[in-house]
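Researcher: For the record, we're logging two predictions in this thread. I'll number them. Prediction 1 follows.
Model: Prediction 1, sequence and structure:
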Amino acid sequence: MQTTGRVYGGRSEAERRADRRERLLAAGLNLFGTEGWSGTSIERLCTAAGVATRSFYEEYASREQLLLAVYDEVLAGAAQRVLHAVEAAGADETTRTRAGVEAYVGHLTDDPRRAQVVNREVRAAGGLPEVTAHRNASLHRFSELIALEVRSRRSDQDPDERRVLALALTGAVNEVLSDWVSTPPPRPPTEPIVRELTRLYVAALGTGA
């Protein structure tokens, strides 16, 4: 990381700002993921992060931008976990499918705040054009990962059909997890979710029973 700028307390300006962003992201995950979008003000975020309101606006232009930054961080972690799991699963297509589904579901449900942000709070803020456009773009990017897998297994499929199938499979996961996170604690186990989504993906991708 670049460390130019005035040094204060042994840390450069760039280091202090990076630390501040991390604290705001942590506060955002905690508050958006527990109290919800509508119940979380910038003042509460700043108090939880231990930063001044002025400092908040030096990092994020709005509460919406912080929500989207938290959302992106969760999805980036999920994508990394899925890619590692699929790579480690070997060549068997059904095993790879389950590994990917299990990794994604696990990443979001291991910490229910992640599922809350991705599957509820970004939707709750969806009346804002910036949030809606960002969420739609993220869903399409994630569906492109699925489309690559579809292409490797169904290379003869029409590209438009492949795109629709990938979006449908992406939507299926999100809707199931939206239902899961809407259930008051204690929430049901996720194994049935992984099992049924794996069956859906296996059938849709034409990999057998």
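Researcher: Logged. Prediction 2.
Model: Prediction 2, sequence and structure:
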Amino acid sequence: MHVAIAGNIGAGKTTLTKLLAKQFKWEPHYEDVVDNPYLDDFYHQMERWSFNLQIYFLNSRFRQVLQIRESGKKIIQDRTIYEDAHIFAPNLHAMGLMTNRDFNNYSSLFDLMEGLVGPPDLLIYLRSSIPNLVNQIHKRGREYENTISIDYLSRLNERYEAWIHKYDKGKLLIIDVDNMDYVNNPEDLGEIVNRINAEINGLF
């Protein structure tokens, strides 16, 4: 079984992935942020490094999805392969930070990969307002994220909402995280767990 968590930068994907992995005894698969050789450069010089970064993420997540499928285990994944292709790369392209040539090359590669992997059995989307995202980003204090603008986050949020509105690849659970504190409030986490159980029991 493959459950994946989607959401903007700072929405709380990694934290919820950890909590749900522990709760359901699922194996967590995290986004490759620590070992990513392009992230720091990208945030300082987006136009120069956008294509490199997106290809790195695409490669990393494609490998991850193949491993998930082959493992036969119950796995929860922090961020999906779709977010790169439907949100981050098109946003960089629209902002003039990725050339037409690079974007077409990237999109062609994604289309090829998408045909070889299946969607998650359940997609959990963490919906968040911009003030909440900004607050969470500041709270975790990753140095390379200090340069992220509110405009950039807003553009991503708009694309997330458009993508989720059309998502039809499988089961979808939308969680509004603005008024939730699933780290410190067991009731909030319990509510999420109950909603996931309802979806999963309908799946199998």
